[in-house]
Amino acid sequence: EAVLFKINAADINPEYLPILKKMAGILNKYKKTYILIAGYTDITGTASYNNDLSARRAENAKKILLENDIAERRIYTWGMGSRNPIADNKTEEGRKQNRRVEYVIMYNYKSPEDKK
Question: Could you tell me the pTM of the whole model?
Answer without folding.
Answer: 0.89
